[in-house]
Amino acid sequence: MKKLAQVLFLIIFGFLLSSPLVIAQEEFDFDKAYKDYVYTQQIYKNAHSEYLLAKSQYKGAKTLTSQTQAQQKTAIMLQARDDVVITYLRALRMRIAESSGVDEIVKQSLFSRIDNEIAWYETHKSQIPSAGTLSDLEVDSEVAADRFENTYILAYETLSTAPMGKINNLYIKMDSLLQEIKTKIESIRQKGDHDTSDTERWVLETENKLSRSYNKQLTAQSNIDILQTGDFKGSAKTYYERVVTNLQEANQYLREANSYLQEILREIKTE
Amino acid sequence: MENQTPRLESVHIVENNSDSQSAKKFKFRISISPKIKSLFVLVVGVTLSILVLVVGFNLVNRYLLNGSNESVPVSSPTPVSQGINYVPSPYADDEKVLDIELRVMNLENELELVDFREETLQPPVLDWNIDFF
Q1: pTM to 2 decimals?
Q2: Most CB contacts within 10 A, which of A78, A134, A204, A248?
Q3: Residues of A whose CB is below 8 A from B107
């Protein structure tokens, strides 16, 4: 009896410990992450305004009081700036986590790199209060600025990967419908009660559109690969824009293929 | 050369003593040459004739030729499809075909609405240039 009570106690205790964690994990989705990001942006804006004021006062007065004030306000601003980047990366992470159609290996790779970035900014943020002078703060800022160049590329790589999942889903749906139509046409042809010569030819046309769409997806993927390797000239945003354009073109081919499917179905339904 | 402009020759105020003292009559006499008079009558006559002809023509056109007083139909700005009468095949009501058709229509909506651009998640614009000296 005593043992039973102990087991029951352990089960209940374990449940109580684990359930709030589970609830907390479930509640943190993209919307929540994005709200946090917007909130920290506002805090940063306020901190930045105070930093600019303190900086101008220090440059004008050059007193010890104004120097101390500038040091405090700069430290607060730098920490707020790190918070913006951290919450931004978390929002990006949730965006890719909620994107269906993205390969799981690709997701895990991005999670790992995003988490590394978050960890770096968290460490950097915790070190800011130890800066003794304005020069130390300048160095702290410069280190973060250098790091943000990598973060910027990772951000555009993530932003390019999420829509790849969207086009992938649409392509799979289209391909599945085409296969079903092909099977239906084959059964009609075998039955011999309806002419299928036109529809069989149109299926080939539709497959051609799908193939073109797939090629555009490959082009988009090659642009993402360039972003990942970091071996490119110019801005990462340029490559992101290219990916978006490639995906829009791929989508246009899918729309044309879909319109063909509608014609094929109309042909099947009529004499 | 004869002056043909109408001319106010005289104005007479005749006070009629037989009526009440307050009543007064004003007489205007304008002398107009006969040529202008006949021209004026001609112009008025022709205008009235045209007016009568136009009104008469409209009335005849509306009530006698068309036979009704309905308003003239206005052409539609959008062409109305005449519709093609398709002859249904044995597969017009096929369950599988209808199911595929429904999913094709749903996919069309998805393809139309999909957005590949992540406007809200563009990297934040921050001040990286911290310089005091």
Answers
A1: 0.71
A2: A78
A3: 170, 173-174, 177, 258
